[in-house]
Amino acid sequence: MVLCLGSKEEEPLDEYDQLPFGLKWRMYWAKKETDPRTGEAVLRLGNNRILKTHCANTEYQALMLIDRHTSVPSYKVLAVYNRPEGKLVEYEAYPGKPLQECWSSMPAHLQNKIVSQVGRFVEQLRKMQPPKQCVVGDATLGAALDHRFGSGRIGPFFSIEAFQEFERRGHSVDDFPEKEIQMVHAPKKPYQLKFTHASLCPQNILVDDAGRVTALVGWESSGWYPEYWEYTQMCHLTPKTMGDWLDAMCRVVPRYDQELACEEALRARYSGSIYDAPRSVRAPSPSPSERDAEQQEIDDKNTSDTSG
């Protein structure tokens, strides 16, 4: 509400969130840290409390979604503040060591225990139902943030085919001689959407000394992707020195080896940074009848039973 004194018009009230006094006090005394995984500035508010500054909404929205629908261990979002300097997010953070640092020194029975846990967590994520069919995007079906495609946001894409066409930089499938691209990106190939961590690698798995996974971190790239995306991203992000971990994971998550070969062929052609540039070649625009048919297909899938 705008208050007026005489004929003088006051400025609109600040639309940014006010920080609670208690939080300001804790921030003043907080220990400043740098996340070794991302380089982000983090304030340590207490043993299990951290505050992230300039936090990507793709991360905390994904964490809130999986907290509601799964038992996957992850940081808990306690509060989100919209501030002039960006989003401030307070988390309940669980302690643990990155698996990458301790895997090689672990006995085999603890390694097997960790792999089994991560496999069950991936299964829970894949059982989640998308709020809309066909849409490839972040947890809320908005633009995704995936460093596979440069520094900017991508999408959302209103079909898996549109996402694949973006991967090809607008080129037709017939422009690629690689048979894996032709087969995986074939028109109307039936892939399902699955909720995907998209950075499932040992660096983003925190564990304790008893072989318990305390948290999966690194959710900023997560979202609704084609069903093979978790597998192909996991294979690319796992360090070569941890091939035994990757081999073990391939036994507990669905494998998509043809899709992996397709992604390798596309990565060989297009580096991540190239997606920051405008596309020089685009697929032909669909005719009005083709657009109507595609929209009708999406509407048929998005019934009252599938819409969020």
Automatic annotation (TrEMBL):
SUPFAM superfamilies referenced in this protein's UniProt entry, alphabetically: Protein kinase-like (PK-like) (SSF56112)
Region described as Disordered: 277-308
Compositional bias segments (type: Basic and acidic residues): 289-308
Every Aminoglycoside phosphotransferase domain range: 36-248
Name the record gives this protein: Aminoglycoside phosphotransferase domain-containing protein
Source organism: Cladophialophora yegresii CBS 114405
Organism phylogeny: Eukaryota, Fungi, Dikarya, Ascomycota, Pezizomycotina
